[in-house]
Design a protein that fits this description.
By secondary structure, the protein is mostly helical. Helix content is 74%, strand content 0%. It contains 7 helices and no strands.
Length: 143
């Protein structure tokens, strides 16, 4: 007996939910790695400020095959957003269960007021704001 259309629809829904969850988990793992790496870079930069070793980030970027500006942004995020707040942000998700993106996190790190940053992060998840829409809100916000 072949499964009917309802069975097929239910199965495809379950498969889609599973895929979305796996992708969300992978995205969160990636962002946690970037945050942790940023924290290490921030500590290295702080240690080396007076030591005359300004090229450490550049050298590391070359060895990793990434742009040094990306590493600096990782460090900036970890310097501005405390780990507990970052963990909270990683638990936020839109209606499909997708987490905020790293680009959202980088923009949120520009907001130094913790409460405002939390409100914006919640809005990103609740309203499904794109990075461009979040940038628009940041530009429109009074300083």
């Amino acid at each position: 007996m072949t499964p009917g259309p309802l069975h097929l629809e239910l199965r495809m829904g379950a498969i889609a939910s599973h895929i979305v969850q796996r992708l969300a988990d992978a995205a969160i793992d990636d962002m946690r790695a970037r945050y942790d790496f940023g924290r290490i870079l921030h500590e290295l930069r702080s240690e080396r400020r007076g030591a005359g070793q300004t090229g450490a980030v550049r050298i590391l970027a070359e060895r990793l095959g990434v742009d040094a500006s990306a590493l600096r942004r990782y460090a900036q995020v970890s310097a501005v957003i405390p780990e507990r707040e970052f963990d909270w942000m990683m638990r936020l998700g839109n209606e499909r269960g997708e987490p905020l993106t790293w680009s959202h996190i980088e923009l949120l790190a520009r907001v130094l007021d913790v409460e405002k940053r939390r409100q914006l992060a919640s809005a990103v998840a609740r309203e499904g704001l794109s990075v461009r829409a979040l940038l628009g809100r940041l530009r429109a916000a009074p300083r």
